[in-house]
Amino acid sequence: MAVVPITDEGTDLLARLIRAEAEGEGQLGMLMVGNVGVNRVISNCLDFKGIRSIRDMVFQSPGGFEATQKGYFYQRARDIDKNLAQRVMNGQRFHPATNALWFFKPEGNCPAQWYDQWNSGRFKSHCFYAPLQSVCPAVF
Questions:
Q1: What backbone torsions phi and psi does residue 130 show, to the nearest 5 degrees?
Q2: Pairing mode, if any, of strands 102-104 and 117-123?
Q3: Residues 83 and 19: beta-carbon distance below 8 Å
């Protein structure tokens, strides 16, 4: 069952986002970026209050994704990207992004905290950060 509304536009936007943010991380890395995006839609907490759709999440400014902020969100969505987007929109979650609302690519090791959020793990070059369950219960 879908955890966010699945529309053609939303699928295409999320597919383009995960490709732009994590194509070099392989399919699992792209799925994890998708988890972060979906979590932002369902969270309604912290920086993501009022985000109600994939479109809202993809184009959130300020506080959105680097791909849309810095202009490398231009590639079309391929079928494989759309399939990955649909998987996370249907509720599949992948550790360490299971409950994460943020990720970034540090120069070195993952800091234990990033903007007061705890590190939930690393996958390849990206570190993932999740809020406390008491602060954002909807992502747990």
A1: -120, 145
A2: unpaired
A3: no
**What is the token pair recorded at 9?**
């536009």
- Check the CA dihedral 103-67-8-83 and report its sign: negative
Q: Residue 5: pLDDT band by 50, 70, 90 thresholds?
A: very high
C-alpha R_g of the chain: 14
- Which residue bears the tokens 């907490």? 45
Distance CA 63, CA 19 (A): 19
Distances (CA, A) of 61 to 86, 96, 105: 24, 25, 20
Where residue 87 falls among pLDDT bands split at 50, 70, 90? very high
To the question of pTM greater than 0.90 for the whole model, the response is yes
Buried b (16+ CB within 10 A) or exposed e, 69-79: eeeebeeebee
Contact between 69 and 54 under an 8 Å Cβ cutoff? The reply is no
